[in-house]
Amino acid sequence: MKVMIVEDEMLLAMELESEVEMAGHIVTGLAMSSAQARHQIGSSKPDFAFVDIHLMDGPTGIDVGRELAAAGIPYVFVSGNIKKIPDDFAGALGAIEKPYTMNGMKNALAYVSAIIQGDDSGSPPVSLVLAEDANAGRRST
Description:
By secondary structure, the protein is of the alpha/beta class. It has helices at 10-22, 34-44, 61-70, 102-116, 131-140; strands at 2-6, 26-31, 48-52, 75-79, 94-97, 129-130. Helix 1 crosses helix 4 (102-116). Residues 2-113 form the Response regulatory domain.
């Protein structure tokens, strides 16, 4: 699977890149701003993306997410505050809250990879808040 990483904290981006590659996937590129992400969406055609909400150019990750969804590219938000994600999750499959563990990220990547390949028999790991689960929780509160 080709994975794009949209993250403005270089150390986190590099750690995530390493984790993605160790899981047998290809990182198509790292983007630190919405402009870099838009360029990569068009040029690298990823199969999946991890997207931070707050990038170098402000809280533009949600806009990047909407563009990914419009292009038919599944993605997951990675954020220090998932409460900032819109109720519709901007088309994301879900979210992983920072700080995350590498094991949690690895489990989330394995689950998402299976979903993208059409295998929805597994259970989501605790590290991944699925969009429909989050929305159900928001409606009940």
